[in-house]
Predict the structure of 3-methyl-2-oxobutanoate hydroxymethyltransferase.
Amino acid sequence: MSVHTAKRRLAPSDIKALKGERPIVSLTAYTTPVAKLMDPHVDFMLVGDSLGMVLYGLDSTVGVTIEMMIAHGQAVMRGSSNACVVVDLPFGSYQTSKEQAFTTAARVLKETGCSAIKLEGGAEMAETVDFLTQRGIPVLGHVGLMPQLINTTGGYRSLGRNDKEVEKIRRDAAAIDDAGAFAIVIEGTVEPLAREITGKVKAPTIGIGASPACDGQVLVVDDVLGIFTDFKPRFVKHFANLAPVMSEAFATYAEEVKARSFPGPEHTFQLKKG
Ligand code: KIV
């Protein structure tokens, strides 16, 4: 009889169980080599639709397609064996109906092998979150600042600064929690509200620009590495500064190619003698 001792990947239920135990660590990931480096250090990797801006140079996440998310979800799965992997559903792929959301989410799970999806939305998406979770699809919610709504909300600014915003985010978080999300991203929200929601909901809250009061934190990996330097919101910290390192490497490569000092003899194939 064989005994299976292989370590299994963290599951969405493991992430949920961390609430109240210790802070949950998450980053976005989009590619295999970065996922490999990140895998031992995070509880879950989010294949975020931020890849539209970070990797593809789009102005917003609105233009991201399901095919992009699946290709990068597969790449991140190939580079990881420890962390739970969650893939974002892109704009337009789930809002029409709960049935559309199920079809898209099932395709993402089948074609990438990831174990959960994320979707943006509050009270208006609660029925969909319930429909998916009842049918075997773990959902990471996303409330507060919702980048897919940029065309109706008009900007990326922190929320919860007036009674109307506070009431909406409070209601959104409660609705997604009651609908069964295993965790809830709170983006761009003032600390007192993030703290209040974290204390009230059953699911762990994962903050991005939502203060240390959340149960865990997520950041965009290119921000953490100091690669994406177009703009730096207040909540971002560069844990490394790779942009100048990369620039210098490209400049040195160009110089050496022009000077014919690269490739050198050690990089060159020769015919074997004799
Ligand atoms: O797309 C993304 O990267 C996200 C995170 C910023 C939470 O949704």
Remarks:
- Residues 28, 46, 48-50, 88, 185, 187, 208, 218, 220 surround 3-methyl-2-oxobutanoic acid (CB under 6 Å).
- Residues 12-241 form a domain with the TIM Barrel fold (CATH 3.20.20.60).
- The chain has one domain: 12-241.
- The radius of gyration is 21 Å.
